[in-house]
Design goal:
mainly alpha, A middle domain of Talin 1, about 325 residues
Length: about 325
């Protein structure tokens, strides 16, 4: 039994790695063909595509009567996206931020995170879920309308037709791989009698975040920083405003204030690092010119990872 569960996780991980790479290849080629900015592709198509495992898993958990698993998967994935996905990506390839639109979308993500804390203070009702979903629709419209052209070069020999096939096949591989990984992870956790909430915030959240990890590392390797940040920000908004909102509209979600607070801390940290250069210039009373430049470096990546590890230690009862 345990051997089968481990096999599911291994095979699922392989599908996630290859599927995400194919999806990035196809998406970037289509973006070039239609002259769509890399950030919009990362914040919408890539983000939503890689967030499908969270959306499906959380909704399924809510329908099955496991609200703790639903919220743990959605919010836990947000924490993992910054702590592990962005942390590892930046550790491998520091990111350069050149466009104000990325910062603006990051600020929208912070607003969504604060809204999440306010709505979830006493748990999430169906009405709270509806508010989060409406916020999601507003974000998508804003992202498309305010997109800018970017100068990150996309090099690909794929035709548009082949790129479309890559997107579909890659996305299917990501979804199937994530499903296998989650089943294996859940089975192993249950085998060792790990509580539902811990499964949601740790193993399941990490498992459903693997598509974002594979996609972000693949994009970072190609020096497509806009896609990396767009993927993380868009995925986190999708996780909370789609995965969690759908779950809340299905069943009432209990409160998890500590976990929501950790999620807020992670959001504040990423916004600070994205705006660091601007803050420095403001403190020196310098004019902030039209051309935007900022950097998320390896030290930032280490700080993201450390906070995530502390959070895991808290979940497992090693601290506090």
């Amino acid at each position: 039994m345990l051997g089968y569960l481990i096999s599911y996780m291994i095979f699922g991980g392989i599908l996630l790695a290859y599927g995400s790479d194919w999806f990035i290849e196809g998406s970037t080629r289509v973006a070039k063909h239609f002259n769509v900015s890399n950030f919009v592709i990362g914040a919408t198509i890539v983000a939503f595509g890689t967030s499908l495992p969270e959306i499906v898993t959380s909704s399924g958990a809510a329908l099955s009567g496991y609200p703790g698993l639903a919220v743990g998967n959605a919010v836990g994935s947000c924490i993992a996206n910054i702590g592990i996905i962005l942390g590892i990506s930046v550790l491998m390839y520091p990111l350069i931020i050149k466009k104000r639109a990325i910062i603006k979308n990051g600020n929208i993500y912070l607003i969504a995170t604060i809204l999440l804390v306010i709505l979830g203070y006493n748990g999430f009702s169906r009405f709270d879920g509806l508010i989060l979903f409406l916020f999601m629709i507003t974000y998508v419209i804003y992202t498309i309308k305010t997109s800018e052209s970017d100068d990150e070069e996309i090099i690909s020999d794929l035709t548009t037709k082949k790129a479309s096939i890559f997107i579909v096949v890659g996305l299917l591989a990501v979804i199937l791989g994530s499903d296998l990984f989650i089943e294996g992870a859940k089975g192993i956790a249950e085998y060792f009698n790990v509580p539902e909430s811990i499964i949601g915030f740790s193993l399941v959240a990490f498992g459903t975040s693997l598509p974002e990890l594979a996609s972000s590392v693949a994009a970072a390797k190609r020096k497509l920083g806009s896609i990396v940040l767009g993927n993380v920000i868009g995925s986190n908004i999708a996780n909370t405003c789609i995965a969690l909102s759908f779950s809340a509209m299905i069943v009432d979600i209990p409160k998890y204030n500590v976990e929501l607070m950790v999620n807020t801390i992670m959001a504040l940290l990423i916004i600070f690092t994205m705006n660091r250069e601007k803050i420095k210039k403001m403190l020196k009373f310098k004019n902030f010119r039209t051309d935007y430049f900022s950097k998320i470096d390896r030290i930032d990546g280490i700080s993201y990872i450390l906070i995530y590890l502390i959070f895991l230690a808290y979940l497992l009862g090693y601290i506090f």
